[in-house]
Amino acid sequence: xxxxxxxxxxxxxxxxxxxxxxxxxxxxxxxxxxxxxxxxxxxxxxxxxxxxxxxxxxxxxxxxxxxxxxxxxxxxxxxxxxxxxxxxxxxxxxxxxxxxxxxxxxxxxxxxxxxxxxxxxxxxxxxxxxxxxxxxxxxxxxxxxxxxxxxxxxxxxxxxxxxxxxxxxxxxxxxxxxxxxxxxxxxxxxxxxxxxxxxxxxxxxxxxxxxxxxxxxxxxxxxxxxxxxxxxxxxxxxxxxxxxxxxxxxxxxxxxxxxxxxxxxxxxxxxxxxxxxxxxxxxxxxxxxxxxxxxxxxxxxxxxxxxxxxxxxxxxxxxxxxxxxxxxxxx
Length: 331
Ligand SMILES: [Zn+2]
What we know:
alpha/beta; three-stranded antiparallel sheet
């Protein structure tokens, strides 16, 4: 994807004007919950992007929706994935590495869920919210994506793209340049954003807020909010969180209604043009230029155990210091 430096500058000014208003719109109660910080972050970061957040509205056909589930897996995610499969639905699960490694069942979940035809995608390792992902050091950004990649890459089927969504959807030109500039992360397409499910305004729903103390809705009540937004927009990427049993129940409430109304469910990589989006293959700013707390990859850094570590590329953030200590230059 060709980029001009000016494509960064113009949205930067626009976003600076909007920052204060967006952050003030998030109630204090919602900010207290890490996951609830999503709404404020997403809006403030979006306009900063060099590569814009990827949405479905401009690419999808009418009555086409992509169900996406974040923050898992949990042990109960597997049975839920099976329910989706039984409905003929292929969804996309944005997993965090820390959730994958939490126990034996969650470690086994990516393979099981992938075998059902769902797409496994990257949602960072520790799900940073405070500070938001876009405020992390370059080294930390790469670590967050790369560590989860090492856990899920083998479960992304041959030929399918590697998709990523940052925690809270937090994104900026710096994140884009950093991930583009590293061989460990540049194959990722992102930031995969959403069209539906991020906001309680207008009578719409966001599952993490629906279940919180401020709203405390039932799956049906929240589902009606989602349905309202889906019907209003007619298509899009739907954000939900499979870690919540109520979100699973909400899906089971909505799906028969959507099927009856003629909606079709697509996996994220079935969205037309999705592979041409995002960070993959784009030439970005060399990430080493912003590396403050790590070490730099050098041409003499060889012998890394991971195939995506590309010796010979100078000035790239090295996320495995121990594997190339002789070549690393401490900052
Ligand atoms: Zn999340």
